[in-house]
Amino acid sequence: DLESHLQRCQQLSVTVLTDHQDLNNTELKTILNSTAPQQYRIRAKLRTYKPQKLYQSIKLHCSKCNFLQEVPDGDDFDLILQGSAVTTPNPELHNTSWYDSVMWTTQDQKQRKIAIHFVKHDEMLQQPEDTLLMIEGGTLKEVWKLTKRFKCVIPVRSTEDDLELLDLSAPFLLQGNIKYYGCKQCSTPKPIKSLSSIAAEQRPSWEPTEIAQVLGIEPLQYVFIMKFTLVDGTGALNAYLFDY
């Protein structure tokens, strides 16, 4: 567990942070006055590290434009779903050549209209564990229920001509308990009918990268980031950990 490991590091008076046994120790002051890139061996104390909570280290990163953002929480997604539920599913977009549709009205006071579109392969529905479906008008709870049973879930809404993705603040795809997000700056979302090209493949795998590509989405990747401040009495150096 990284958090307890970092706490142990802080308790030690001196921590060897890099290996490089063939190099002599270099003072941080010297490193700060040098031009990069160089390779050094240091002995230093870990003064601080950020963030303090491990879960706060997880961010979303676009490898194309280098944009870095916080991972949205469930409340943000729920609000977007509620906003999209105001638009009633368009019956003219139901039951096409590549998906079958089911629509019903909820029994609660709001009487929401929910539509689920099950993507077909060779004019047949696949097994649930291999199925991609699209949902309109669902709540966060309903979406998560579907992800437990079906391979892929895409939240959508109706336009006059086609189904479309929600705002890119919402995940463009859910698979199991993983939410996949797209970069707002680098994505150019295409109509949902673009997915029919994957459905027509011999064995549709519904891989997130392929789904993103046909939908014009530049996917964001989950990254792990931490900042360490190191001191040795001659200076303070910030070290960053960045990994997928």
TrEMBL record:
This is POTE1 protein. InterPro entries: POT1, POT1_C_insert. One of its GO terms (biological process) is telomere capping. PANTHER family: PROTECTION OF TELOMERES 1 (PTHR14513), PROTECTION OF TELOMERES PROTEIN 1 (PTHR14513:SF0). Pfam families: POT1_C_insert (PF21375). Residues 75-219 form the Protection of telomeres protein 1 C-terminal insertion domain. GO terms for cellular component: nuclear telomere cap complex. Coiled coil: none annotated. GO terms for molecular function: G-rich strand telomeric DNA binding; telomerase inhibitor activity. It comes from Himantopus himantopus (Black-winged stilt). The lineage of its organism: Eukaryota, Metazoa, Chordata, Craniata, Vertebrata.
